[in-house]
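Quarterly update from the structural biology core.
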Amino acid sequence: MPRWSFRLAGLVSALCAALNAAPSTAAPLGHAPYLGADLSSTNEMDDCGAVFRQNGKAYDLFTLVRGHGGNLARIRIWNDPDWTRYSNLADVKKSIRRARAAHLLVLLDFHYSDTWADGDKQIIPKAWAGIKDDQALADALYRFTFDTLMALDAEGLMPDQVQVGNEINQELLGQADWRGRPINWKRNALLLNAGIKAVRDAGARSVIKPKVMLHIAQPENVEPWFKAATAAGVTDFDMIGISYYAKWSKYSMSEMGATIKRLTLAYPKTEVVLVETAYPWTTDYADPLGNVLGEDALMKAYPATPLGQKQYMTDVTRTVLENGGVGIVYWEPGWVSTRCKTPWGVGSSWENATFFDFHRDNEVLPAIDFMRTPVPPAAP
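Predicted structure, tokenized:
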């Protein structure tokens, strides 16, 4: 179980707040299943005036997640995001403090970019763009990872789990026009192993020994990627992370579950987590900014309604757990519409896929209770 250093008064205050939010049914900290949410934008949402409500009362989002059965917060970090003051080291420290106060495990998600890295693009940080030697680039990635983790550990904020890259379907530290380019596995393995070694070396100096996760977008891509990665010598990982969105995946929910089952058999010492998923509760808008998840993101069995969103989350959670997966993380349930600007415009492109009803002053939606889904009994 993680150890934290904070004053008893703060512990009592955080515990009381969590109990007031709702009866907690979360798993004991440090143990699977990991049920939680990516809360990376929460500090920004708070600064933009967002209010998250339950029965009309305002709540801290971290506390609300814990109160509804969650035990994990996922937090992203960019290298040098000079276009925003969020998701940098200072912001990550604030987020991890909030997670610890709410008694949540922390999964730190290194994007290794100055902006969004995803299954289509892995854009090298500008500070490293001039490095042409692969070993020198691996050394820079190692140093950034190690220094970040040691800076967190110095303040009692070492994460419990670390992603070495975000949706790393493409080759790490690439360019915008690399999409679809075959991966140079000699280079890619060198970079991945540098990041993994940095996590191991930082963990060796800390009370908390973070688990290492490698994360691939969409289940149909996971098995071939890991087959290639292990053949290239990338073997020292503890967790396999998967993104699953109906909009971008060719797989049904049952096919996603079957993939997880096969992964648990192929990598028996590795935990498999659905580390990103989401579903819209409406196709309405709260602002002029278009929504990412529209009609093209819907599955036949799940209408874009509050109950449809809840049923999707209940079913996807059961599918993961019944097939041997050990965790489900909802992506950005608090990225609601506000007056603030994004690179795409004013407001949010995700407000219809949050856990908060903008028709009712951001009242919490029933899908948040996916984290209370009963855990199936372990196989004999």
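Confidence is low (pLDDT under 50) at residues 1-28.
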